[in-house]
Amino acid sequence: AAASAAGGSPSAGATSGAGTDAAAPQALQTVLNADGSLFSVKPGVCGFGGAAASLQNPTTSTTNDVALPVQVVSAVDTLGNGTDYVVGSAPECADIQFYAKEGEGWGSGLPLAEIFALVPKDNGLVITPEWGVKASPCPAISLAAGDPGKAFVLCREGSVMQVTSDGFNGTGRLAGGRALAAAAGNILFAAAQADGCNGLAVSTSLNSGASWQQLSCIAGAASDGSVGIALRDRSVAVVDATGKIYRSSDNGVTFITS
């Protein structure tokens, strides 16, 4: 069974995943909107809350805080109509709630057929739009929705898994991976710690994570902590562990500070 609408709890045969590992820094949840604005969310922690969000204007590079309707966030993305949404819960993480952006506020009740999300209490569980809740063999630090009906998770030790109707298929590994994003055709991009890069390396995979090519090294970008990566067309945005934003307009080959 799929997760219920706002205020409901996920129901599934899979009731226990690999478990939430406190030592694994969860990736920032990031969305690069059609107008170039970057929506970035610090996920927060069950029992404490603390989720925080910001929106950066691409023209002025100013960043403003965005009030969230939840205190723990397990997914953000954009619906087919371009509307940003968040999936999350109150600090106790008893329920999972779904909200879409409406002007300066949020409206609840999203179409679940479009949503993949981590379960806030257990990042070894993934809510899927069609197959209920699936248990991952490893704690996921980042989830990326690819083509319709497809999603990938990045595990703490670097494994990349594709979410399927049967569970999870291991597709590859990226050592030092810290955040994952997916483009059309299930092309993956990742921000990672890498040998020889004193900052954050940006890598891509054209085969669902089976092999990776490093595109660039963002020298000086802070990698110790939660980081994020977002894509749209040829644009890539990376948020480092201090919240500093780097942007690329050439598919991640070169970056400038935003």
Percentage of residues in DSSP E strands: over 45%
Number of helices: 0
Shape: globular
Unreliable spans are 1-16
- Assembly state of the chains shown: single chain
Rg, rounded, reads: 17 Å
Helix content: under 10%
The class by helix and strand makeup works out as mainly beta
> Terminal Cα separation, in Å?
42 Å
With strands numbered from the N-terminus, the spatial order across the biggest sheet is 1-2-3-4
SSE string? EEEEEEEEEEEEEEEEEEEEEEE
Mean pLDDT: 86
Largest sheet: 4 strands, antiparallel
Q: How many DSSP E strands? A: 23
Keywords for this structure?
258 residues, 0% helix, mainly beta, 47% strand, disordered N terminus, 4-stranded antiparallel β-sheet
Provide structural commentary:
- With 258 residues, the chain is mostly beta strands.
- The protein contains no helices and 23 strands.
- It has strands at 29-32, 38-42, 52-56, 63-66, 72-78, 84-89, 97-102, 105-108, 117-119, 122-127, 133-135, 140-145, 151-155, 159-164, 167-173, 177-183, 187-192, 199-205, 213-219, 228-232, 235-239, 245-248, 256-257.
- A hairpin with a 3-residue loop joins β13 and β14.
- The model is unreliable at 1-16 (pLDDT under 50).
Short description:
The protein has 258 residues and is mainly β.
Task: Reconstruct the topology from this structure.
Elements: E1 29-32, E2 38-42, E3 52-56, E4 63-66, E5 72-78, E6 84-89, E7 97-102, E8 105-108, E9 117-119, E10 122-127, E11 133-135, E12 140-145, E13 151-155, E14 159-164, E15 167-173, E16 177-183, E17 187-192, E18 199-205, E19 213-219, E20 228-232, E21 235-239, E22 245-248, E23 256-257
Antiparallel strand pairs: 1-2, 2-3, 3-4, 5-6, 6-7, 7-8, 9-10, 10-11, 12-13, 13-14, 14-15, 16-17, 17-18, 18-19, 20-21, 21-22, 22-23
